[in-house]
Amino acid sequence: MEEFSSLFKKQHMGELLLSILFIIYLIMGYKTPDPVANAVDTMVGKIVILMLVVYLFMHSNTILAVLSLFVAFDLIRRSSAATGIDALRQYEPTEIKKSSQFTALNQFPYTLEQEVVKKMAPIVQGGSSMSKASYSPILEDLHDASPIN
Predict the structure, then answer these.
(1) pLDDT tens column, 127-138
(2) Which residue among 48, 57, 86, 123 is the one 20 to 30 A from 110 at the CA level?
């Protein structure tokens, strides 16, 4: 309770004013302007905001510091929504999403063709087998065509 009463002293009027602005920002839900959103929605912008929050935790009233933490989180969230990065993260397909869709689409049942091919006699390739084939090829009717050899 001492933190709350010390906020109303004359020497802490700046902190009181900043606390009121933070509360208005959180409650009213103002849209973040595009130049501010573009600056905040970078890695450097997020680090600067985090450093400001840490500075307020170290050198100001605890209530103001906690409010600044909420405002920083909300500012980063609103900035990513304003620049469109949030939508990209949400709807852009990742490799995991794409591969799961392909896996789901490539699940085929065991077909008749696969069953027939599995039951077929093994193919004997010339030169690779040590045993002689148990069958001999028969030349079909050539219909007046000349042989290839």
Answers:
(1) 555 677 677 777
(2) 123
